[in-house]
């Protein structure tokens, strides 16, 4: 499916960011969107490669955050920004 291909490309870009920059220097939006309330990551497989994808509980259309997803990700983003202002890691 084209969605899997698109998700795989986004995941490859995310991996590049993670390898290039220290974890404390980036807000990992992909991880924030994929982290389920139970602490596990939502993942998919394509051609034997596993990658993080948007948790279905955070979307109503499969591609955009719903109200719950927006709140979860916004809280994580605010914590990240606050930690940057304090000079601390997330």
How many β-strands, per DSSP? 2
- Which strand order does the major sheet show? 1-2
Q: Give the CA-CA distance, first to last residue.
A: 35 Å
Low-confidence stretches: none
Largest sheet: 2 strands, antiparallel
If you average the pLDDT, what whole number results? 90
Structural class: mainly alpha
Order of helices and strands: HHEEH
Number of helices: 3
Cα Rg: 14 Å
SS strand fraction? 5-15%
The global form is globular
Percent helix range: 40-55%
Question: Could you explain how this protein is built, in words?
Answer:
This protein is mainly alpha-helical. The chain has three helices and two strands; from the N terminus they run H-H-E-E-H. It has helices at residues 2-20, 29-34, 67-86; strands spanning 43-46, 49-52. A two-stranded antiparallel ribbon has the order 1-2. It is globular, with a radius of gyration of 14 Å. The relative contact order is 0.15.
Question: What topology does this entry show?
Answer:
Blueprint (H helix, E strand, L loop, with lengths): L1 H19 L8 H6 L8 E4 L2 E4 L14 H20 L4
């Amino acid at each position: 499916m084209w969605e899997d291909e698109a998700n795989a490309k986004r995941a490859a870009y995310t991996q590049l960011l993670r390898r290039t920059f220290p974890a404390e220097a980036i807000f990992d939006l992909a991880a924030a969107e994929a982290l389920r309330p139970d602490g596990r990551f939502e993942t998919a497989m394509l051609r034997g490669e596993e990658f993080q994808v948007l948790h279905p509980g955070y979307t109503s259309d499969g591609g955009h955050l719903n109200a719950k997803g927006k709140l979860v990700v916004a809280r994580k983003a605010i914590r990240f920004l606050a930690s940057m202002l304090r000079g601390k890691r997330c």
